[in-house]
């Protein structure tokens, strides 16, 4: 389903589990290897298995998640995402294993932050993912009331996801 940005329909759809090819086992060495290519040189390097396993468990497209990690924290290299081991910049909402650091969740390990991100998308954003509603998802995930530019965020996602899908073989 196409994403609507500012009243128009761009040609790149929000990736949903159905549009990213067959489900891959968490231990699929090719997918893990391809994720490693995308996260090489970042704090996410070495956590490819966690990314793939969580994507599989929570039925979230890997390319979408990695693109969000890129936009939110440059793959856990910048800002609160890096400091908090929270590549998705999740707000603190009492997540298991997290503490509150200035309103954002701070995790004891990057694997915990990665897993919490996927769990959060499944629990709180599933409808948006299933409908292919990127703008709706972003309006809730990174609302304008927090100073976010949803249209700009969506445009970045629409640029990043296809290149990540290509690398991942999706």
Give your account of this protein's structure.
This protein is mainly α and 170 residues long. It has eight helices and two strands, in the order H-H-H-H-E-E-H-H-H-H. It has a single domain (27-168), classed as Orthogonal Bundle (Lysozyme), CATH 1.10.530.10. The protein has helices at 29-39, 48-58, 62-73, 79-83, 110-124, 126-131, 134-141, 150-168, and strands at residues 98-101, 104-107. Strands 1-2 form a two-stranded antiparallel ribbon. The chain is globular and about 40 Å long.
Describe the structure in brief:
The chain has 170 residues and is mostly helical. Helix content is 51%, strand content 5%.
Number of helices: 8
Distance between the termini: 17 Å
| CATH architecture identity | Orthogonal Bundle
Number of domains: 1
Q: How is the biggest beta sheet arranged?
A: 2 strands, antiparallel
């Amino acid at each position: 389903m196409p994403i609507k940005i500012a009243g128009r329909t761009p040609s790149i759809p929000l990736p949903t589990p159905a549009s990213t090819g067959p489900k891959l086992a968490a231990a699929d060495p090719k997918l893990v290897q391809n994720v490693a290519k995308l996260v090489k040189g970042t704090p996410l390097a070495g956590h490819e298995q966690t990314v793939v396993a969580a994507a599989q468990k929570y039925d979230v497209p890997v390319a979408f998640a990695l693109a969000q990690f890129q936009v939110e924290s440059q793959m856990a290299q910048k800002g609160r995402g890096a400091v908090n081991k929270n590549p998705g910049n999740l707000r603190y909402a009492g997540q298991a294993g997290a503490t509150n650091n200035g309103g954002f969740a701070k995790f004891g390990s990057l694997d915990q932050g990665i897993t919490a991100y996927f769990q959060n998308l499944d629990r709180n954003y599933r409808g948006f993912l299933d409908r292919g509603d990127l703008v709706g998802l972003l309006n809730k995930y990174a609302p304008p009331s927090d100073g976010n530019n949803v249209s700009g965020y969506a445009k970045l996602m629409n640029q990043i996801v296809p290149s990540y899908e290509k690398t991942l073989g999706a």
